[in-house]
Each structure stands twice: as structure tokens, then as C-alpha cells.
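Blinded run. Sample ID left blank on purpose so nobody reads anything into the name before looking at the predicted structure. Input follows.
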Amino acid sequence: MESKTEMSALPFLPKRISLKTLIEASRSCRGCPLYKTATQTVFGEGPTHARVMLVGEQPGNDEDLKGHPFVGPAGRVLDKALEAAHIARADAYVTNVVKHFKWVPSGSRRLHKKPTAREVSACIPWLEEEIDLIKPEVVVLMGATAAQAVLGKDFRVTQHRGELVESGLAEHVVATIHPSAILRQRTHEDRHREMQRFVHDLGVAAKLLR
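Blinded prediction complete.
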């Protein structure tokens, strides 16, 4: 059970802010209990002045073990969709709202568990600093957790995916599904359909970068 005391990453932010100091400081973050069961902090990666930032929910099992964002199955889906949308992953800054993997055991496997609103709120300062440093022209929020963390709990990705959303976050903000949602589709046809829609949403961001 979560502690009812205040949870926040703010006390762990470095005094001098740079991408390097943020990454180093995040490794020692104890702003919420998730660090206790995670292998390591998984911070964002990409060019310091990337024009587009992709924001997901949290690292998964592969990311937790390797220490890099979007390197597991969902990351491979993202890579294919970015290529189809004509966005080079090497040109994008990729990160998550929550920097530690939250999981529950299932036999020998570790299954993803959605972070709570308090855990998301505790971790948000890291994302805010990333955005402030990178200053992307376009922010793509992938999945309900990422979108609601930034745009409010009443925001519905299903109703506004692929649309430009008013936000002080960046000049342009687009919300879409998380690539893991494509993997959860039951049939090949469903996965293909959702992939096409995901590529379309990323294409909205791509057009803004031209």
C-alpha cells in the first residue's frame, strides 16, 4: 500500500539543470515507492534539441533491464510506425511520464501494472524539466496515462486522438494510443487496423515538422 505522505521527485532535482545532471539525479530518485522494485531508472533519450518528443507511460520489462526507453515489443511497434510516418527515431526525443517500471509477478514473468495518479504526479517534475530543456515543437502523448498526466484526468484519447490539442506544453501537442495497445489486439486484422491509425496520428506530427 502506498504511503499517505507527500510523494514528489522535486527534492531530487539537481540544482543545475542539464540533461546530463537530470539523468544522473534521476538514478537516485526516491520520490515514490516504485524505485524499490525497479532495476533502474529509465530516463528519456534523444537529441538535446529534438523537434519532436514522444511521451509514453512508463518503462516496461525490457526497458527496466536494459535502461533505455522503448526497446521492447512496444518499442519495435513504435519504430515501425515512425518509419511509416516518415519520422526518424534518431531525430526524436523519447521518454515516459514515469521513470520506473511498475510490475506485479506472474510466475517467472513481471507484468506491467498501471501507475497510480499519485505515482504519476510524483514523477511529473522529471518530464517537465525534459520538456523545458528540449523545447520540442511537437509533443506526442502516447496512451491515456501520458495524455491525462499532461492534459488532465478528463482527457480521452479515444475521442481526440490525432487532433491538435491546446496546451502550454509545446507549440503543437498531439495525443494517440500507446503502441502496446496495438500488441493487445486479438486478431491480425485488428492489429493492422490499429497500426494504420497509429501511423496516421504520427503523420499529423510529421506534417507539423515539415
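Unblinding after everyone has recorded impressions. Residues 139 and 173 are 5 Å apart (CA to CA).
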